[in-house]
Design goal:
Layout (H helix, E strand, L loop, with lengths): L3 H14 L5 E2 L6 E2 L11 H10 L1 H27 L3 H12 L2 H8 L3 H6 L3 H8 L6 H16 L3 H21 L3 H30 L3 E3 L17 H4 L4 H4 L2 H7 L30 H17 L7 H7 L14 H21 L3 H26 L4 H14 L4 E4 L5 H6 L3 E2 L6 E3 L6 E2 L2 E2 L1 H7 L3 E5 L10 E6 L3 E6 L1
Helix pairs in contact: 2-3, 3-4, 3-7, 3-16, 4-16, 4-17, 5-17, 7-8, 7-9, 8-9, 8-10, 9-10, 9-14, 14-16
Length: about 475
Amino acid sequence: DSNLPVYEYMVSHIEKSHAIPLSIPQINNNMSVLGDPLNSFFNPLFGLSILAFGINIGLRVTILLCCFVSGITMYFLLKKFSKEKIIWLFGSFLYMSGGAFFASVASGHIEKFLVYPIIPLLLFWGINKKLLVRQMLGLGFVVIWTIYSGDLYATWFCILMYTVIRGYFFFTQKQKKQQLIFFILPLCIAIVLALPKIVPFVQQVLPFMEKSGEVNAFKGSLPWYYFPVPFIEPFGVWFWDRPFFQRHLGFYYNWYEYFAFITPIPFIFLIKVKKIFSKEIFKAIMLLLTLGTLYFSLSFWYSPFFWVFHFSVLQDFFRVPQRIVMPMTTVVVLLLSLCTEEWLRMGKRRLVILVFVVSLFWTLAVDWQILSTTFPKNDSLRRNMIAQFAQKYKKVTVVNFATQVQYFLIQKNMRVDNYYYGWYAKNSILYTKNGKINLSALVAKKPEFIVTNTYKKMPIPIGYTKLMGNTEIVIWRRI
């Protein structure tokens, strides 16, 4: 609802003028296109798809491509560390159907499902004692992919994971200088290639814009022993968004921030984890899982990230620590796959196939349930009401408090004065504070039209009357 109008405007502008727009008029102060850290248009998988097929079909094509490519990248990662073809297939399909991917699709977080296929390549190229030039270029490509996808959290997590991997080889290998070069050079490649996005961000965004919403790095984190739950819990919104659990267990953010279901069944293969203790890949995996667990528990004193964030500016930039579960899905699937190989060596091939089939069907069933119940079912009612409104009032400015309506308003060439986006202009008048309507702002600016949800009573200032509405939204007009 916040990003699609931006991409629709960009596609329309490119088709008409054959040039990329420099700014987005829908966002306060005309947000810089290149400097926008949330803009995913410059990811080729997404940008080329919506240019070729339009927003609706192009978005679906992108989702299918990301799902398919994630299986391919995981296939190559498993092929590097395992000799069993069934393991390559098992891990690839488990990763493709992972809850973290479909939760990002259901929540509309384009940037997240764009980076999901690239995480296996970080381990594929990164877990090597010595790096070739093409591998360092590949690692730089991974970081660049996350930046141009608009997912700075993925950028941050990739850098953390790569630091742990190279740190392991730094302390276990004799060539210290060489290991430092292997660490620094890919990051330098990424920084150089990211300059077209970094420079306008620093010059045109940071001085004039600020992040919307509360930035609290410590909210949402959970104790370390909760870390396996996102991978084995299939209920999604019914578990993480249940008010009782939110109050008593500390689930602060929406369900899709925690969800990474891959079924608990493959975890039985961990019984033979001792068989791979001596492998170097196992040591790297355990370090990465330790990283994920400690970051997941960021608000607790035993996590080093608690102290790092507490005494640094990082707490002003990053929040939602449980987002680490998405990149950790790659690590968990890799560990389970390596343990599964040991069961194959014991002659348990039928058991492995059974676990593979049951796990796949279970994840697909959960994925289908997520996609079929998450998307709003009454879009046509909202769309039709906005269409009726637009027939009577052309190119007007509205203040919108209704959900899933902003996109339809923009489609009808209406200006949304409180356009919801991840960044907003500094010192601007906010119509909402802490999730509640700011009546003083409405009284001060006196917008001509206000759009609200029907099912949720909202305080409307005196001087407004109901213009039209249905069971989903109500449109108010100033008298």
